[in-house]
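Please describe what follows:
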Amino acid sequence: MDRRRFLLQLAALAALPSRLRAAEADYSRGLLWAVRSGDAPVSHLYGTLHSGDPRVLARAAPLRARIAEARLFMPELVTDAEAVSIYQAASVYGSDDLPRRVGRAKWPRIETMLALHGVDSRIAVRLRPWAALLTLLQPVAAQQPSLDEALIALARAQKVAVRPLEQVQEQIDAIALLPEKTQIALLIDAARRHDRLQAAIEPMTVAWLAGEVGELSRINSGLMSEDPALREHARLFMQSLLGARNARFAERLLPEIQAGGVFAAFGASHLAGPDGVLARLAAAGCRIESVT
């Protein structure tokens, strides 16, 4: 639960889908990318995995030197005490309302799966559907800190300024503003397929370790759309969590890249694809090169 200007250029970031899809560059492989704009110093984008798996955390140390050279470090989110407090307040109803909303017949399975994630039954009944869904999509007994948190710590230890790409309320809104019927349908499905979702964590980790961002995205989107009856709900979910936020990330990154010397680290699934952050920055005139 304690869990994240220019007018012409901004117009380019909102670019027509056809323009983004026309790009020939393939951003499906690689986690670290050098991004340049004009004569400004090089910036770097790094695709993280929101995981505390020791294999994943081992990737932090090799980035130390590049982060130390940056004038600004931009993580996806800073999960400080204030952010945790905002998340906790937003994630619950004032009453025991979730069993009624999902249906009494569906509730026992959801409650059982939430308990596996350490959610007390007295809290479970008060969770909003989106918060329960996000909980079930996380690894059971997730390890801390995550790679994202480790990179923030590296930047702070080296006195690099830290500014998040998003505020916690923006992350909350990405899912909380979905239609409630979509939240509930996906929550019921996540409880029903909990074992399947947990089993997919290792293949996603392996894909990320190999730098196969495209494969990581395919696994993720495939999991969300296995049931044909839920595909429209899954489409709305992925568009809100990825598509809309990709545009936001690119818009906020562009002026910093034009100034140069930024190191940004955010979920790897935001990098790839015709509407991904890299394609959007390329459409805005940035020069992009894979480093790994």
